[in-house]
């Protein structure tokens, strides 16, 4: 993979993703290079370190790239307002500049798993690196078998990418969305993504799973997958 670089980028777009009525704010932040040249290449699942130019505080932080490796026009991120840096990034204006170091991390290397079924499992903003994977898969759809996404959110107000997830059927990609707290009009699974995974009991033969999200969720889903017969070598993490 490419070396890690530090360079300056410009905010192209900052759009709120969660429902305005939701107390938890998540934005989609899109960055572009200052001269609009191609961004550094990366592997789906990798992340970068974001810092505010000239400032030591807030402390720089790490954010997974949510855009496709095939998109060289910029990087996209999902930022949850949950700390000093993320609060700054959620309110940053178009045209503002940020220092980027990366890409870094091992990402999700699917090259060795061509021909396999792929299961993408994540919750909340953990869906960001998985979005990079499914967008990459769309560009190479014939290289993989069944593709199924298991996405989990706290409530319907916390859901991200609802329209995009619904449209993935056009690419023969299945989606299961689980809400931890459902409502009267919700017809999907309620609880945790590992419960939906356990209920579906996907076939582990010739399959690989990519996990992203909170460590407690990753641990629970790893245990569920192992109980379903998935070999440890076919349960992938991006760090």
Instruction: Give the biggest sheet.
Output: 6 strands, antiparallel
Question: Which architecture of the largest domain would the CATH scheme give at its second level?
Answer: 3-Layer(aba) Sandwich
**Overall morphology:** globular
Query: Could you give the order of the helices and strands?
Result: EEEEEHEEHEHEHEHE
Structural class: alpha/beta
Overall mean pLDDT stands at 95
| Terminus-to-terminus distance | 14 Å
Q: How many strands?
A: 11
Rg over alpha carbons? 18 Å
Major β-sheet strand ordering: 4-3-6-1-2-5
CATH topology of the largest domain: Rossmann fold
Strand content: 25-35%
Q: What's the tally of helices?
A: 5
Number of domains in the coordinates? 2
CATH class of the largest domain: Alpha Beta
Low-confidence segments, given as residue ranges, are none
Quick take:
Helix 4 runs parallel beside helix 5. This protein has five helices and eleven strands.
